[in-house]
Amino acid sequence: MADPSPTPQTLKLGRVAVVDTFAEAFPIKAARLIITADSQQWADTAATVLCGNATSVIACDIEAAIERKIPANETPDGRPGTAVLAFAFTVDGLAKALQNRVGQCVLTCPTTACYNGLFDCPKEKQIRIGGGIRYFGDGFQRSKKLGDRRYWRIPVMDGEFTCEDYFGTVTGVAGGNLLIGGTSGTAALRATEAAVAAMRSCRDVALPFPGGIVRSGSKVGSKYPKLKASTNDAYCPTLRGDVATELPKDCRAVYEIVLDGLSFDAVQQAMRAGLHAAAAQPNVVMITAGNYGGRLGKHHFHLRDLL
Amino acid sequence: MPLKLSYFGDTSVPVEVEGLTPDWACDKSPAEIERFEIFEGNRKRPLAEMFRVSGSATDRCFEWEGNLAGVHWIGAGMQTGEMHVHGPVGRHVGSGLRGGAIQIHGDAGDWAGAELHGGLLHIHGSAAQMVGAAYRGAPKGMTGGMILVDGDAGDEVGAAMRRGLIAVGGSAGDLVGFNMIAGTVLVFGDCGIRAGANMRRGTVGLFGAARPTLLPTFRFATTIRPHVVNVLLRTVAAQGVKFDQRLLEEEFDIYHGDAVSVGRGELLLRQVEVAV
Predict the structure, then answer these.
(1) Angle at the Cα of B200 (from B194 to B202), degrees rounded to 5?
(2) Other residues' Cβ atoms within 10 Å of the Cβ of residue A243
(3) CA distance linking residue B185 with residue B116, whole number of Å
(4) Domains delineated in chain A
(5) Which one of A65, A136, A168, B143 is at 20 to 30 Å from A176 when CA atoms are compared?
């Protein structure tokens, strides 16, 4: 993902070298879905399936990930819930993808219901989800309007699937990232896992890659013209000596965390939490971030601001 | 500082205050408000002849005091603001309400919230007949908003309502949801006969301890807990209406009807008779 500057300066966080660079992120449209079910397990199952194949807008229709579990007393129907954040380049793209995904992954899942999780959104920025999939009810669907919120009730074989008609959207931030290098693959992974855990404790952010971690960090373009992105060779330890590497001498593995959020502050706060959690782990030799020289996105997260 | 309206009228004929709303009064001086024309029977009177007026309406908040059981149309057609009524009120309170909130700390007469379109009407006492109903000859009753009655309500609650939510904490009379087009009526106490008669769509929850006798034109569907009922009950609870907390866990018997009409309505009944 990185387009490294020729002579990066390094800062220190404890013993760990932090490259004086920035993560470059871009605006994106975001929605939050609250999926509830009779048990936390089924809410998590529906949310996990909904977030399948939603790692990167490079090749997926959306980026999506579980944000957090929601206790029963905080959900609209008083059942355990799971919040999902979903991101796409356009509001229309987000609506289309979420209609498909809620229809295929939440409607189908036992006992679930799906509610909007972003409020105070102007009507023109809302996306229709329940209203799009209600036709599955084949004319037997019913709606219930309460205040300015409409809930569609679609008959299914275990009762009803309830899905809110409209969901709010905001312009969020996509592409926040950290790259964490260690003296071994295990050390790098443990540190990155610690960073992921810290970031997931923050609100309004989602880490769309498997377990929140990317091992295949990418750069823009490729020698193959059809490819929009290809392996980030400067951070591949097996290519040291073949390419202009960015790896310190004792770095044998790098993992990347990519995160999207509902606001600049949310992403920055999560990156700060992740950076400090990773730096506190043993055998971490480098933490850096990916950018494109400022050409890709207007949001720049300077690591020096996070120390 | 709210506008305080203390009633001292002493008349046996109806007093009507239609049009005296925060929307009208917010930019008026106290003297102008005192000159507002109300009706005593068929005679026009300035407001000050029956009400002591103090405070200011600039923050769109009214406080009514006194025995207002003979004062009708309080808050009718209100669009914004707040009203707090301390004492009983007459007929048509909150009729045609479009927004804002009216809190009645006492009982209300007939036609409370009739043809209400939006906002909140919360009667902390009991209400008489025709809560949220359509006026005679009108095609639709309530079309939005919320009416909450902490106590009991009379006959024809929600008659011909089109949308919105009515919750009655106590018991209700006959013909709950009569001619209902859509919307929701929840009755947490017992109810009279012919609930849901001629309803087309919508939901009537009859959660009293005594299971009502249904019309034969309602068909049993299943026993289940629709998730949207959780949403409705939690909304009502958040407004302070008290009901049996076991309802938050129970399943309900669902009946569809009324078959003499469109038949897309639903009645929700507690699955078994419950001890209170």
Answers:
(1) 85
(2) 12
(3) 14
(4) 10-25+172-306 (3.30.70.520), 29-169 (3.30.70.520)
(5) A168
Contact check, Cβ <8 Å, B248/A78: yes
Q: What amino acid is encoded at A41 in this protein?
A: Q
Q: Does residue B145 belong to any structural domain of this protein?
A: yes
Chain B residues whose beta carbon lies within 8 Å of the beta carbon of residue A77: 227-228, 230-231, 234
Provide, as residue numbers in chain B, all residues whose Cβ is less than 8 Å from the Cβ of A145: 144, 163-164
**Has residue B1 been placed in a domain?**
no
Specify if B160 maps to a domain: yes
CB proximity B163 to A under 8 Å: yes
Residue contact A142–B264, C-beta within 8 A: yes
Per-residue pLDDT of chain B (276 residues; tens, 9 = 90+): 899 999 999 999 999 999 999 999 999 999 999 999 999 999 999 999 999 999 999 999 999 999 999 999 999 999 999 999 999 999 999 999 999 999 999 999 999 999 999 999 999 999 999 999 999 999 999 999 999 999 999 999 999 999 999 999 999 999 999 999 999 999 999 999 999 999 999 999 999 999 999 999 999 999 999 999 999 999 999 999 999 999 999 999 999 999 999 999 999 999 865 555
Place of tokens 């929701």: B184
Provide the domain limits for residue B258: 61-270
Q: What is the tally of structural domains in chain B?
A: 1
Determine, yes or no, domain membership for B161: yes
Please report, for the domain that includes residue B110, its CATH number. 2.160.20.60
Angle between helices A264-279 and A185-200 (to 10 degrees): 140
- Please tell me the distance in Å from A78's CA to the nearest CA on chain B: 7
